Fold this sequence. Notes:
Layout: H1 3-14, H2 20-32
Helix pairs in contact: 1-2
Amino acid sequence: MPPIAVRLSAVARTADVAPPIDISTIVATAGIK
């Protein structure tokens, strides 16, 4: 599994408990890396 896919999977699992701004930050970080 590519690292980005792993990050997106983690984001998807975290989306239920983290505020939207945190999700946006994680997505932005995943996009940069």
